[in-house]
Amino acid sequence: MKRLPKNIFNLAFLLAAFILLALFAAGCTSYTKVSTDQLKNFQKQIRAEHAQLNSLQVRFSPASLQFTYSLKKEIDETERLDIFYKTKELLLSTQFQSEVIEGKFFKKYFTEERIYPQASISFQIQKEAESQATFHSSYYQTSDVSSEEARQLVDGYQTWSFWDYKNDPVTVPPRE
């Protein structure tokens, strides 16, 4: 039986390593941390009002804008809803839209297409890696925003769903 030259095995190894690296890189999403004076002031205010809040991290990727609250311990539904509605007000504020969405997100991603990210507000216990509950919204009325026509169907982060990872997601009513 004829032996294959060593360089063929080296080539095969390099090709396999390259494929694995490409798959790993494609599967990893990098996030950009968001920090503005408005967010710093909001975090101070919300932490003063809710003693169980440890911190707030705001970050975005090409497809999402995430608000993640770290909690000292579990909070009740009333407190969680109050934090959610205040965070939603922040997200919808003219200043946030101008500084973060226009000034940071669109400068980094989708400069031409201007595709808005999905938004989420999550709560997790400080010592646990997974979220305890998440509120989620889309800027658009449809999940397929590949066409200009679809991007004309705007909800503007008005409709939100809530998921506690135990029950099915439910629609969050507007604040009364």
Key traits:
alpha+beta; 22% strand; Lipoprotein; 176 residues; 7-stranded mixed β-sheet; Alpha-Beta Plaits
Task: Give structural notes.
The chain is an alpha+beta fold and 176 residues long. The chain has a single domain, classed as 2-Layer Sandwich (Alpha-Beta Plaits), CATH 3.30.70.2960. 38% of the residues lie in helices and 22% in strands. The protein has a 7-stranded mixed sheet, with helices on one face. Strand 6 and strand 7 form a beta hairpin. It is globular and about 45 Å long.
Could you say what the CATH architecture is? Answer: 2-Layer Sandwich
Which residues sit in consecutive blocks of at least 5 with pLDDT less than 50? 8-27
Q: DSSP helix count?
A: 4
Count of individual domains: 1
Secondary-structure element order, N to C: HEHEEHHEEEE
Based on CA atoms alone, the radius of gyration comes out at 21 Å
Largest sheet composition: 7 strands, mixed
Shape: globular
| Cα-to-Cα separation, first versus last residue | 81 Å
The percent range for helix content is 25-40%
Spatial strand order of the main sheet: 1-2-3-4-5-6-7
Q: For the residues shown, what is the average pLDDT? A: 84
How many extended strands? 7
**Structural class of the helices, strands and pairings?**
alpha+beta
CATH topology: Alpha-Beta Plaits
CATH class: Alpha Beta
Strand content of the residues, in percent? Answer: 15-25%
